[in-house]
Every structure is written in C-alpha cells, then in structure tokens.
Design a protein that fits this description.
It contains 8 helices and 6 strands. The protein is α/β, with parallel strands linked by helices.
Length: 223
C-alpha cells in the first residue's frame, strides 16, 4: 500500500499512519495482496488517488461513496469513477450523469473518469478504499472506516464552506462527523437503481453546490 508522497494531506495521513489501527490495516492488506488467489482493487498505487488528485488546500466538495467497484479494470481510487475505457458505465454512475443532465441541462460526459472533478476540488472519497474482486463490501470493517472518518472530521474541523454530498443511508450516517454550522450538507437517495427513483434524479445537487460556492466567493465546479 503506497501512501502519497509528501503533499498537502501529509499532516493527516502521517498522523493516522502512526496509529495502531492503521498498522493492523496495512498488515491485513499485505496479507490479502500476498495471496495470489485474491485480487484486490484498485491497484496499490491507486488506493490513495482521491488524495493525490485533490489537494487538501483546494477541497471544495466531498462526495462520499461506499467501496470501490469489485470489477477488474473499473476502480481507480475515486468514488463512483471508472477508467475511461469502461463501457457500459456502472449503473450508479450512469444515474449520476442522468441527474447531472436533469439539473444543468448538459450533455452527459462521454466516459466515466471523474478525474476532472477531483482536479477542481471535489474529493471523491469512498468509506472503504479497497475491495476483493467480485465481493462488494469484502474489506468492510478492516480499519478503513476509522481512517476515512478521520479524514471527514479533519476536513470539517480545519476548513469552512465545504459542500458534502451524502447519497444514501450509509453516506448520510457520516453527517454526525460534519459541523453543519460551517458547511453545507446535501442529502439524497443513493444513485443505485434500487433507490435512485426515490428522488435522486431531481435532487439538483450540482446546481445547489455551485450556488453555495458562488455565494461564498469560491470558484464553482465545471461538472
């Protein structure tokens, strides 16, 4: 597991890296990785892509996912995002693009790689950063949640006027970690086909995000 080189997240990642739970997490991951019968996604060098591609000092928006796609060639360290070659798009991502089109009346992107969001200050953070092939939630409970909770709480404490997009019950459970007096929290059903029809398609989170950023004199996201 390759932690990002020295960057604006170092103060947080370095602190968590020293804690006993994180050492146990790394040991567990090394065990999984050394088992040649088990494939773990994303690749070791992409596990922390959310932090590599979105500078701590530039974070404006946080979109919380659950865990990486458990399909070969899909996950690359950004929640909901897939590599450019992936066709068809995962259903949840396709529904995100439908909601985006409904909200901003723009043509959906031609691929599902959301790196261009990350580079504008959108932290695409999964609660769990690794998964085994074909086994959703397989790395739930091994320590990632403690780490990503620390990330959310640190962002809430150290920054102001962030927008948190919490889609689905699991993401919404993280609201307790966020100071809602300082930040804007938007909640909607998860974009999964099982729940998106309950109101996700018309949530207008993309325009609401940009309205809030503009009101606080923060540059908007080009979705």
């Amino acid at each position: 597991m390759i932690l990002p080189e020295s960057n604006s997240w170092s103060h947080l990642l370095g602190k968590e890296n020293q804690k006993p739970y994180f050492q146990l997490l790394k040991n567990k991951l090394n065990t999984f990785l050394s088992n040649h019968n088990t494939k773990v996604f994303p690749s070791e060098d992409e596990v922390f892509n959310a932090f590599k591609l979105c500078d701590f000092n530039q974070v404006k928006v946080v979109i919380l996912g659950q865990d990486p796609y458990p399909t070969m060639g899909h996950a690359h360290g950004l929640s909901f995002s897939v590599k450019e070659h992936v066709k068809p798009l995962p259903k949840s991502l396709n529904n995100i693009f439908k909601a985006l089109s409904n909200d901003l009346n723009q043509t959906p992107p031609v691929h599902g790689n959301l790196t261009h969001w990350a580079q504008q200050g959108v932290l695409l953070l999964n609660a769990v950063l690794t998964v085994e092939e074909g086994k959703p939630d397989s790395h739930k409970g091994i320590g990632w949640e403690q780490f990503t909770n620390a990330v959310i709480q640190n962002l809430s404490n150290e920054k102001q006027h962030l927008v948190f997009l919490l889609w689905g019950a699991k993401a919404q459970a993280k609201k307790v970690l966020i100071d809602t007096q300082k930040h804007y929290v938007l909640m909607a059903p998860h974009p999964s086909p099982l729940s998106a029809y309950r109101g996700f398609f018309d949530c207008k989170h993309f325009s609401k995000t940009n309205e809030y950023l503009a009101k606080n004199r923060i540059s908007m996201i080009n979705w």
